[in-house]
């Protein structure tokens, strides 16, 4: 049998790979899509399971005895794509690792799904993918499955990334925003608002004497250090899921991303039906970040962080946890910023430097620079 | 109205025929138009609103104000009471109860 | 460390000033901070909670969000909807509702609306987009007017024909006059606006203090400034004086900023202006001079007054004058909420109605 | 201690919830975001783990002895959002279930991440979310974690959805596009091109005598029936991962989405280094779909399906698998459309009705209607 | 079941016709199918692989993608880049490269380019977007011209001033004449374009068949049609006849479609036209009549001829005339690939160079 | 060039002053302009290119063509051989080997 080899598509649709920009055809089921996957995506993540290019990754069970599965997802839509101290690629890897780590999980596997705008320079796409690969490698987490869609010009803003993540939660550990108890201490792992102000400063044309950089970082090693310092996970046999062990010293961890510290504390106060009080003078903010906040009329409590966490710890363990955090490179400026109280459940109050308290509510809209 | 923050002039330049400057706020640098503070010099502090420098801060007046206020404070300290009339040592510990 | 800022937040110094205020206050006094920046600082630092109970601070109409009338917001919205227009505004105005919607909603429906930090950015946008009309929403008080004036002069210098201003400038002294002239006026002293005075100087305030026998103290915006100014005001009130005492000497000169005043004079002229919540106040606003009519969006786009009025239920005028409290309003918490405000004092989150609402106070 | 309750944001940023459209503020860390999550998303999925609103779902290990984890991700970017026979919400749930099912996995848990354009009518967003919830419920798969981002007007096309999924793969099962062997039969579960032509017809203003509907469907029960018919999974103890059991009759399954049947078969031929021959007259295409394809000059082999699968089966099991498929409601029109050959590895050929073969290549670009 | 279509795909009938062709063919013959639609069907169904070896089918230049010259594509690209223009085109033209890029690439960089199925959709876009200029890329042969003519008439009727055509219409008979006049011509018979003849009728073809003594058979586009037409051609060739025999009688009338011809005549006039790969052919195109100049994008936007030429390396003219094979071209597979085509026969995936390339034939 | 597919006219209407129709292709319905086939009636088949009906299919001519072709075919069948001259029974089984 001899085959007459002929082009498949006899109408006039022409190939249009110009080598420079993303085409709709990069989006799936086409020759360009296959090229992008095989020449750029697969090498960037260098993972044997991903390289098989099946519809799904199939993985040996990663769970030890009594361990539970952690699962999370986030989309990343930052503009600009590259900013001082980071890029959308790093954010996408670190952000999902962090959402796993906040539950006490060891991050194991990530998915990466790209939505790319037609016309984006391929060089930019390749740089984003390289950043994704480098961040995953740096964190020691495997990218095992992925997806790429290309949408028409004007149908998305350059590139959006979704990462989902799977991790393993040690037996007996049950961290939850609903675990807070009066007397607990609120610890932040470092300065507030670095990421959000680095981004906003790009947009507002601010510059900095020393570059203001995003704090994007993978926090799973810091969370491991915190858990160890808090005596977690216990050596004891696994318990009923999500029932906090009696006296579990570490109540909850959260990374204060969008909405900032204010949003995370409000969510915790609501979930636990407790009050939270933080003290203005204890809130760590880097000088230039504070300068930028003052100029633009923005409160750092509401600004996003991408490499910080809030840990809520029983008072007797707060010292040990704070110490452990400060010994970790990502927690050098850790500080106790407040505590949990029984009064005013669901509300967060800031004790100002002058003494009075004011309620910190969820922000009611996007943060905009103001003149008034 | 009129959010305006004092910053230090670290650079002066011209742009589109306008006198412009870079202003430093603890390391954050913004641009401002200096047309309304023609006599400004590098190192001066200026109050900037909506991208326009509106005054040069008068360091002498600032120092005078502080001197007056510190005097008030020193007087109180000599009396050994805080602003609520209680012994100074306690003031920090129970500020909350004041409200 | 922010010089000329952090030292004015010194808690020890603030407490000393508070003690002194407490020491000199013997009777109830009602003080208005006219400027929204002062309101903001007072609430942010909790200053009102630390003052002697006999001192009542009343929040004034010193915020463009509060006072820009619905009819003018509606004109802004009409411009922003036009396909050929790039509408530029300070971030502050984005969420202010007109009679039916806001700039933010029009942007959400496809309007090309950009927030700028300086009016010169709007001029640059006009240079960069010669095929489009760039309109800048020129709101604000005396402090903002010099920058907006220079934007017009710069556009004229560059020969731009695609740049214009929708002007809604207001002036503080006529508003103070209107508040003091109200029959039920309770305000006995004014914390005067430090940055307005930085531009305009003290002459008008001295005239008003003398005419109305009301003490006025221009103040900076940090806790120590505000407390020092309140101390100066209370001392005057207690002593029966009514003068202008300048707390903010490091920035405010008696003559103001002559270069800035000159530019404002060259570009703008005084006009009557309606204030949301207060109604029309004669000679309380600025508009472009006829020689700059080419830069006046109202002329250029032949905008019509919609004649849109405040809600008839709204009693925010009385609230702004300190005559009523929000719960006395029949619409409060019912037709009128922060999400769907009917009046000025619910529009701004600094407004009394919004503050009461957030606090769930009835 | 008494707190003076005050608004948090003293500048003039105003709340702007107008009740009708999506605002940037719905996107995270704000009051509107919390409302959207609590009032719309949580009830739509009604899942106890999702309802906890932690940064991650924590789940008891879903894996039986010897079972492996399947993990997949896909983004969905369809325009229009609602089309005859389905909606983006149904696609997003079914598509990820299908990618799990194609690996032989039982689908267990899904994540849902929304990217929403500012200005979208809230009613539309609620309808999309309701569709997501209904599809997950219908398929018996839990949505346990999620994310919502709002991007500025013009930065995305109404709504994009990412779903990621976790499933359990029976011990000893190793389906792979690399498993094909000469002689294997290619079976399709039903008619081609229904989904893609339903969408394209909406855009091209075509209508239909009887509505042409997308075939979107969750195929995990059909795949279970196929595996059972093929004698999979074996009762035998678990083997080394991804080593196909000797004589494993079911080689691979794939859902021919973007790029259609042509793209899937080409990928399989390449991965297995075999040739594939399909016979034109065996390809099932519904009449109106063929009509629409003829008018627009589009080849149904390249058009997307959302509720079909291709199964490659050893010849001795092909009859049983075909039978089992036809007995399932989603496989009534299943047909053997071709077979695997040793010649011309990596290439797919179509035997035309007249006899000659022509090579089916990957499409080189987006499908466009043509006049020539 | 598609009536008037599926019955013409009947494999049994096709085989009978093939047998008959085989039976009557005694010598080598070279037949050109001028129309890309025929090329498409021949390859789709594998017809060329079933014919007797002695019959050679040569693909003709009957595809607007193949023949629209680079200079005209460049004009389309220049229009599509203009911010005020909504550029409309059949999907076919989207990926055709001009001298540096394609409509698809300009769309990717932000150009407002929309694919339409009918030129009336472009007219509707002009009605719906009065503030923008809608340009329609009027490519095609005699078949497409009536629709494009009516679009212009309709736009005139509606009084549209924002609608225009970038015209690149070509005519088949002059191209056939040019091919036959080439010194090295090998083509002995033509499968004539069934839909072109449906509009234009058979007069021109009868004249050419007589003048050049070459058989011509207008054919439908299904396998049975094509095979029946080839049978008619081979019979003529074998018998030494040179006539027009109409295979596609169900659609093609000798006089064509008078209403369609009249509209074309009213709106267009014959002009010289350059064909990519073939060069200028006198009286081989259509352009808008002067009375419709207001709808002529070339006048309206004062487009300049870029004078962009075919690559000097390219021998696609010779290939199109059946004189050379692609591997004889020095650029084949080197500078010239389907992704970066230099010439007509690599541009269209139906072209001989692209087909050779896909087949990895050297 | 000139992709055009025959479909059946199932509706005739006017739009913006133009005679338009809905054309059915095995259940897929498209719109076409009927200005160039003024005499067309419901139930007629027409060939549509780029949204324009260009001819009314002549059922009689179609039938005539088929009659001629079927005649050819019947002749072959009577001979008992397929188009390649081989016995008819084998024809389907090994069509592949023909190439
Ligand atoms: S509650 Fe609303 S309507 Fe009533 S006074 Fe306040 S702003 Fe006006
Ligand atoms: S290979 Fe390219 S350059 Fe050579 S003849 Fe073909 S189209 Fe022209
Ligand atoms: Mg998450
Ligand atoms: Mg996150
Ligand atoms: Mg988080
Ligand atoms: Mg995918
Ligand atoms: Mg606009
Ligand atoms: Mg997938
Ligand atoms: Mg999929
Ligand atoms: Mg799939
Ligand atoms: Mg999230
Ligand atoms: Mg354009």
UniProtKB/TrEMBL annotation, chains A, D:
Gene3D superfamilies, alphabetized: PurM-like C-terminal domain, PurM-like, N-terminal domain
Annotated protein name in UniProt: Hydrogenase expression/formation protein HypE
Residues annotated as domain PurM-like N-terminal: 54-169
Gene Ontology biological process: protein maturation
Family matches, as InterPro entries: HypE, PurM-like_C_dom, PurM-like_C_sf, PurM-like_N, PurM-like_N_sf
A Pfam family assignment: AIRS
Taxonomic lineage from the root: Bacteria, Pseudomonadati, Thermodesulfobacteriota, Desulfobulbia, Desulfobulbales
Family label: Belongs to the HypE family.
Organism: Desulfurivibrio alkaliphilus (strain DSM 19089 / UNIQEM U267 / AHT2)
Domain PurM-like C-terminal: 181-344
From TrEMBL, chains B, F:
Gene3D superfamilies cross-referenced by the UniProt entry: 2.30.30.140
GO MF annotation: an example: iron ion binding
Alphabetical list of SUPFAM superfamilies matching this protein: HupF/HypC-like
Pfam families: HupF_HypC (PF01455)
Membrane-spanning intervals of the chain: none
GO biological process, one term: protein maturation
Record-linked InterPro entries: Hydgase_assmbl_chp_CS, Hydrogenase_HupF/HypC
Similarity remark: Belongs to the HupF/HypC family.
UniProt-listed NCBIfam families: hypC_hupF
Protein name as annotated: Hydrogenase assembly chaperone hypC/hupF
Species of origin: Desulfurivibrio alkaliphilus (strain DSM 19089 / UNIQEM U267 / AHT2)
From TrEMBL, chains C, E:
Organism: Desulfurivibrio alkaliphilus (strain DSM 19089 / UNIQEM U267 / AHT2)
A molecular function (GO) term: carbon monoxide binding
InterPro entries: Hyd_form_HypD, HypD_1, HypD_2_sf
Biological process terms in GO annotation: protein maturation
Designated name of the protein: Hydrogenase expression/formation protein HypD
Keywords: Iron, Metal-binding
Family from the record: Belongs to the HypD family.
């Amino acid at each position: 049998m001899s085959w007459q080899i002929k082009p498949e598509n006899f109408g006039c649709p022409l190939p249009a790979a110009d080598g420079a920009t993303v085409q709709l055809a990069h989006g799936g089921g086409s020759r360009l899509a296959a090229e992008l996957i095989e020449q750029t995506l697969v090498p960037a993540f260098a993972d044997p399971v991903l390289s098989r290019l099946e519809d799904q990754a199939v993985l040996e069970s990663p769970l030890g005895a009594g361990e539970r599965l952690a699962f999370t997802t986030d989309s990343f839509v930052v503009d600009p794509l590259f900013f001082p101290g980071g890029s959308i690629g790093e954010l996408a890897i670190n952000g999902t690792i962090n959402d796993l780590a906040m539950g006490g999980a060891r991050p194991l596997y990530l998915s990466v799904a790209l939505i790319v705008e037609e016309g984006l320079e391929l060089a930019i796409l390749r740089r984003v993918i390289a950043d994704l690969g480098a961040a995953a490698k740096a964190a020691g987490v495997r990218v095992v499955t992925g997806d790429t869609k290309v949408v028409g010009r004007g149908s998305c803003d350059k590139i959006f990334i979704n990462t989902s993540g799977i991790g393993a939660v040690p037996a007996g550990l049950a961290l939850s925003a609903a675990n807070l108890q009066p007397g607990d201490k609120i610890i932040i792992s470092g300065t507030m608002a670095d990421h959000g102000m680095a981004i906003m400063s790009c947009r507002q044309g601010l510059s900095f004497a020393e570059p203001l950089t995003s704090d994007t970082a993978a926090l799973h090693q810091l969370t491991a250090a915190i858990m160890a310092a808090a005596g977690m996970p216990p050596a004891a046999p696994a318990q009923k899921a999500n029932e906090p062990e009696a006296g579990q010293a570490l109540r909850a961890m959260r990374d204060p991303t969008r909405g900032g510290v204010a949003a995370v504390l409000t969510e915790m106060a609501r979930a636990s039906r407790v009050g939270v009080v933080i003290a203005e003078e204890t809130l760590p903010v880097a000088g230039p970040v504070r300068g930028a906040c003052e100029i633009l009329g923005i409160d750092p409590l509401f600004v996003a962080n991408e490499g910080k966490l809030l840990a809520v710890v029983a008072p007797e363990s707060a010292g040990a946890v704070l110490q452990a955090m400060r010994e970790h490179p990502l927690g050098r400026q850790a500080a106790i910023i407040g505590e949990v109280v029984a009064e005013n459940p669901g509300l967060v109050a800031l004790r100002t430097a002058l003494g009075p308290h004011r309620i910190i509510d969820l922000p009611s809209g996007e943060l905009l620079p103001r003149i008034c | 109205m009129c959010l305006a923050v004092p910053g230090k002039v670290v650079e002066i330049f011209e742009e589109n025929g306008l006198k412009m400057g870079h202003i430093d706020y603890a390391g954050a640098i913004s641009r401002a138009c200096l047309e309304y503070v023609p006599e400004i010099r590098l190192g001066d502090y200026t109050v900037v609103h909506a991208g326009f420098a509106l005054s040069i801060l008068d360091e002498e007046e600032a120092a005078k104000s502080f001197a007056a206020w510190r005097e008030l404070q020193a007087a109180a300290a000599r009396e050994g009471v805080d602003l609520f009339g209680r012994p100074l040592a306690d003031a920090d510990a129970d500020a909350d109860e004041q409200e | 460390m922010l010089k000329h800022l952090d030292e004015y937040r010194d808690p020890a110094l603030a407490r000393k000033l508070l003690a002194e205020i407490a020491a000199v206050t013997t009777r109830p006094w009602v003080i208005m901070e006219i400027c929204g920046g002062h309101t903001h600082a007072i609430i942010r630092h909790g200053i009102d909670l630390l003052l002697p109970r006999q001192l009542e601070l009343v929040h004034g109409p010193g915020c463009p969000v509060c006072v820009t009338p619905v009819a003018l917001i509606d004109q802004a919205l009409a411009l922003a909807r036009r396909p050929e227009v790039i509408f530029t505004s300070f971030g502050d105005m984005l969420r202010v509702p007109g009679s039916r919607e806001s700039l933010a909603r029009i942007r959400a429906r496809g309007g090309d609306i950009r927030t700028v930090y300086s009016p010169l950015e709007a001029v640059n946008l006009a240079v960069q987009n010669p095929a489009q009309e760039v309109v800048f929403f020129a709101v604000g008080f005396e402090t903002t007017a010099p920058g907006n004036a220079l934007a017009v002069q710069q556009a004229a210098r560059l020969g731009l024909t695609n740049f214009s201003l929708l002007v809604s400038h207001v002036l503080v002294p006529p508003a103070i006059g209107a508040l003091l002239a109200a029959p039920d006026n309770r305000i006995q002293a004014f914390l005067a606006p430090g940055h307005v005075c930085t531009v305009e100087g003290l002459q008008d305030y001295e005239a008003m203090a003398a005419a109305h026998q009301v003490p006025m103290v221009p103040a900076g915006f940090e806790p120590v400034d505000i407390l020092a100014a309140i101390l100066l005001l209370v001392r005057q009130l207690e002593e029966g004086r009514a003068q202008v005492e300048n707390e903010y000497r490091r920035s405010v000169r008696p003559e103001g900023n002559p270069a800035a005043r000159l530019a404002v004079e060259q570009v703008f002229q005084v006009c009557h202006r309606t204030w949301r919540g207060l109604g029309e106040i004669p000679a309380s606003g600025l508009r472009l001079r006829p020689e700059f009519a080419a830069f006046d969006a109202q002329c250029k786009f032949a905008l019509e007054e919609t004649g849109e009025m405040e809600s008839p239920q709204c009693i925010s005028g009385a609230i702004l004058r300190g005559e009523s409290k929000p719960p006395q309003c029949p619409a409060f918490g019912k037709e009128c909420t922060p999400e769907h405000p009917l009046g000025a004092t619910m529009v701004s989150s600094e407004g009394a109605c919004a503050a009461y609402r957030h606090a769930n106070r009835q």
